[in-house]
Amino acid sequence: MKREIIITSDGSTTIHIPEWNEQYHSKHGAIQEAYHVFIKHGLTLFSKEKVHILEIGFGTGLNAFITFLEHHKQELTINYTGVEAYPISKEEIAQLNYVQELDAVANKAVFDTMHTCDWETETRINNSFSLLKQQKLFKEIDCKNCYNLIYFDAFGARVQPELWTEDIFQIMYDSLQANGVLVTYSAKGSVRRAMQAVGFEVERLPGPPGKREMLRAIKKPKPTL
Predict the structure, then answer these.
(1) End-to-end C-alpha distance for the chain, whole angstroms
(2) Given strand 13-17, what is the order of strands in its sheet?
(3) Exposure string (b/e) for 13-26, b if CB count within 10 Å is 16 or more?
(4) How far apart are CA 169 and CA 152, in angstroms?
(5) pLDDT at residue 224, rounded to an integer
């Protein structure tokens, strides 16, 4: 499937799929969306602790890179797992401008390492951040009670409705620890209902630029009898 690099409204790049008229990030601003959805309403819920993060899916590496840039501020130790069925190419990576747009030239080597490190092998980025990239379908995730936070950044339900079903959210629910959090840019009613059907407590939050709302779901411990 053809992919093109485009510039979003905040000056940052993303990948556009003409056949679907779909982007890897919001056309209203890739970096703005990442910070609003995954950092402001996800990562900032944690401080001074070890956090296990699952990203659905790894894509351009933007969310992982921003999480790396932010984790020191909250004194976090991060174990980051990014799942991606169809990794992007070296040529596409070379056209991404996140290092420049984030004023993160000092950490360019980190961004490069995130893309060049081996799949299926945990890579220690520094003493407080490790990355594990897994090339597989989301439905193949089988880790139980593993994660504190999920960045659910799949393609939209308009083009890939099979990624936003009760079956997928059951996998997400099972993979979270008690009080674990899932954040996503989507606010569709069908998505919210699918989350609730598997046991999540779901709240609507103000969305990033170009979207009125987004969703955050929490795995509350089940009451003991």
Answers:
(1) 52
(2) 4-7, 13-17, 22-23
(3) bbbbeeeeeebbbb
(4) 10
(5) 66
* Closest-CA residue to 84 (of 75, 95, 92): 92
Please name the helix (run of DSSP H) or strand (run of DSSP E) that holds residue 185, with its range, or none.
Answer: none
State both tokens at 42.
């996800």
pTM over 0.85: yes
Residue 136 CA to residue 167 CA, distance in Å, equals 16
Read off the pLDDT of residues 136-179 as tens digits, 9 standing for 90 and up. 999 999 999 999 999 999 999 999 999 999 999 999 999 999 99
Rounded Cα–Cα distance for residues 63 and 26 (Å): 13
Q: Domains of the chain by range and CATH?
A: 29-218 (3.40.50.150)
141, 175 contact by CB (below 8 A): yes
Ramachandran angles phi, psi of 105, nearest 5°: -60, -35
